Amino acid sequence: MEISVKELWQMVVDNIKQNIPTETYDLWISPLNPLSLEDNIFILGVPNNFFSQWLQEHQQENIEKILSDKLEKPIKLDFKPQQDLSQIMEKVERSPEPPSAPAINKQKDRIDPRYVFDSFVVGASNRYAQWSCEAVAKNPGQQFNPLFIYGGVGLGKTHLLHAIGNYIKQNNPSLRVLYVTAENFFSEFVDVLRFDDNAKASFKNKYRTLDCLLIDDIQFMAGKTASQEEFYNIFNALFSARKQIVISADRPPKELEKVAERLISRFVWGNIADIQPPNLETRVAILRQKASDEKIFVPDDVLMHIATQVKSNIRELEGSLLRISSFSLFTQTPLTVDSVQKILKDIIKPSDNVRITIDLIQKVVASEFNLDFKDMRSKKRTDAIAFPRQIAMYLARNMTDEFSTTEIGDAFGGRDHTTVMYAVEKIKEKTVSDPYFNAKINEIMKKIRSSEN
């Protein structure tokens, strides 16, 4: 009986799986697709040319031997890249900004189905915000009302707002949910003013009968007195009816300029969650997630290089990834750290930010816990000193890129690698299980970044 191409390949992968680590199998072997066997040549579909190169170096001889032994004749392996360059180029040319209003407006609720909680990469910098958003999505109007999320450009605020909307739509389809930017709200309100009272009444009814209002970039309402007045009335109506309100901004409520005090006072009624720039670990995870979603292979050292250079903006991270992958596919050149430096030379520029050192971290943490700076490096093991010291080790590991665990241990009084890793894991687990502690850690990180070295 003749063996099909798929059956032959299954025999190959069963053999390979037993002899390589699971993560190597998942990364390099799982994405492969057997296509045909013609004239003693086994054609294997690969995502791109990087897979071909890796297979030639690591598995081609082995695969050819397995196939030859099974078919009792010499079999050669050939590769066919299946990545669609046009799709990648289209994504690169597309603006890295969030979906434009017209694209979202095709849906009445303006909620983009692409943005869900499962695709949001969680790290120490955004864990509390993500947890707060999930809590709101599961019980809209019951807790954290209003929820105010703030953070810099491109850190995931818009993603989280859409994720709330998508979760509610899926689990409570009878509820009325609407996503709107402050700019769109203003434009809509101005348009309504040109029409009769029926149009104005329709506008008020549209917003005041919602079960969940998601309003993005509230800082753009600054100075727009009439719009603020209308939003104030909508806010009061929804809040009184125990309907959920979620607001995002690029700064905390108290720092919003030209926004009425009575609005700001309402923004702080509920829960406030900030999103900080992602740490190195989270940035690498974001890049890996994006590469996986787009079916792009990028070597780990290249991902690490991008993550160490692009520190403050997730959109820039993802845009850089798409740019280097399209360039590589178009030119058929492998991605290396050197080539990526050249491709991204007009994007990645030397940073003028304060250089974060272990000394700086130790000083800020010591001050936060009313300790002497020397306690960070002492042999004392009392809880009052040991716990802040563990926090400082955790921050040194996550906020600096150039120090190994051994070097970090040396800076804390000659402690070893195991002690540092224990501290890192302990604090990491506590940030996951305790949102208030996580908020405290984020606050310390913010102070470190704003300190002068």
Instruction: Figure out the total of helices.
Output: 21
Strand order of the largest sheet: 5-6-7-4-8
The portion of residues assigned to helices is: 40-55%
By helix and strand content, what is the structural category? alpha/beta
Mean pLDDT metric: 82
**N/C terminus separation:** 74 Å
Q: Give the CA-based shape.
A: globular
Work out the radius of gyration: 27 Å
Percent of sequence in beta strands: 5-15%
- Which sequence of SSEs, written as H and E, runs from N to C? HHEEHHEHHHEHEHHEHEHEHHHHHHHHH
What is the tally of beta strands?
8
* Major sheet characteristics: 5 strands, parallel
Unreliable stretches covering 5 or more consecutive residues: 84-106
Please render the helix and strand layout as text:
Elements: H1 5-17, H2 22-29, E1 33-38, E2 41-46, H3 49-58, H4 60-71, E3 76-81, H5 85-93, H6 101-104, H7 127-138, E4 147-151, H8 157-171, E5 177-181, H9 182-192, H10 197-208, E6 212-216, H11 225-240, E7 244-249, H12 261-267, E8 271-275, H13 280-293, H14 300-309, H15 314-331, H16 337-343, H17 358-368, H18 383-399, H19 405-411, H20 417-433, H21 435-450
Parallel strand pairs: 2-3, 4-7, 4-8, 5-6, 6-7
Antiparallel strand pairs: 1-2
Helix pairs in contact: 1-4, 5-15, 7-8, 13-14, 13-15, 17-18, 18-20, 19-20, 20-21
